[in-house]
Amino acid sequence: MPVSPLQDPDVAAVRQFNRFHTRLVGALNERMLASDYSLAQVRILYELANARPDAPPSARDLGDILQMDAGYLSRLLSGLESDGLLARTPSPENAKRLALTLTERGREVFAGLNEASAREVASLLSGLPPEARGQLTGAMARIRRLLGDTPDTRAFILRDPRPGDLGWVVHRQAALYAQEYGFDWTFEGLISEIAGKFVREFDPARERCWIAEMEGEVVGSVFVVRQDDEVAKLRMLYVDPAARGRGLGRALVEECLRFARGAGYRRMVLWTNDILVSARRIYEAAGFELLEEEHHHSFGHDLVGQNWGRDL
User: Fold this and answer.
1) Which contacts of 276-284 are long-range, i.e. CB under 8 A and separated by 24 or more positions?
2) How confident is the model at residue 52 (pLDDT cuts 50, 70, 90)?
């Protein structure tokens, strides 16, 4: 039996967030930013101020952009026109089409409102540390994307690890490999040892870790460690399911190769298992060659380990 929207917890969560947000931005106030204008009027001024100069919108265009009732929009436009903030000009191509533009006074009013809005948001963010600000803006980007407001153009950044990142790497890899391959907790023990050794013996001139972020969240990682003076080892490549299909794995491996060359290594090697098909494809595309295989029983399974390598 279908759940009533009134009993749906997801519906309730979205409605609760909407109530919080409207209160946060003052959307329920009759006037915005201590001005003489409502939220709807300020939004109209924003759209006109940011319209292409060679293609000013008509009232119909604004209605489509803002998804606003035509009658309500018409009353708002008339009020702004009466205040001398906008002008209607017949289009050269179609005299019946009236293009809407801001007057000089309209641009001045919008500039003041725009600055006041920026100050208000800056004050809201001022108490948040950089990491929290990234999480906030990333979550906002995800909300917009999931609800169809923006195209799916998620981009990732690569950065050095911060406190807490290595624990996250161990946790996520252990959880994912248990879910996708059935690995037991001995795998978590192995990668914990690798991460711990990386910290204990870290040589910044010859070793490196990259953490990948997307929309303010960590979605990947990889390590380069010293095997000997001439050989670097690629370890613990991880790409979160949320970031797959975007070239992140390839980008992480390319960073490893670039760093290893610059650090003076002449060769790079890695160890993996044959069931990790996606990872093997990334290695092969990056020029690695399969050197040898060995059967072993690890992480609760009979596996085929593989050693790969390439010259730099």
Assistant:
1) 276/181, 278/244, 278/249, 279/237, 279/249, 280/306, 280/308, 282/237, 282/249, 282/250, 282/253, 283/253, 283/308
2) confident
List, in order, residues 6 or more apart from 55 with CB less than 8 Å away: none
> pLDDT over 70 for what percent of the chain?
98
Long-range Cβ contact pairs of 134-137 (< 8 A, separation 24 or more): 134/213, 134/216, 135/216, 135/217, 136/216, 137/216
Pair 282, 251: CB distance under 8 Å: no
State mean pLDDT over 229-247: 92
**Residue-level length of the chain:** 312
Fold category of 31-127 in CATH = Arc Repressor Mutant, subunit A (1.10.10)
Rounded to whole angstroms, how far apart are CA atoms 293 and 284? 15
Asked if residues 259 and 268 have their Cβ atoms less than 8 Å apart, the reply is no
Query: How do the domains of the chain map onto residue ranges?
Result: 31-127, 157-311
Closest by CA position to 222, among listed 206, 211, 233: 211
CA atoms within 13 A on the CB side of 251: 19
31-127 shares its CATH topology with 157-311: no
DSSP sequence for 202-234: --TTT-EEEEEEETTEEEEEEEEEESSSSEEEE
Of the CATH numbers 3.40.50.740, 3.40.1350.10, 3.40.630.30, 2.30.110.10, which one belongs to the domain with range 157-311?
Answer: 3.40.630.30
Q: Tell me: the pLDDT tens digits for 121-148? A: 888 889 888 778 878 887 887 788 778 7
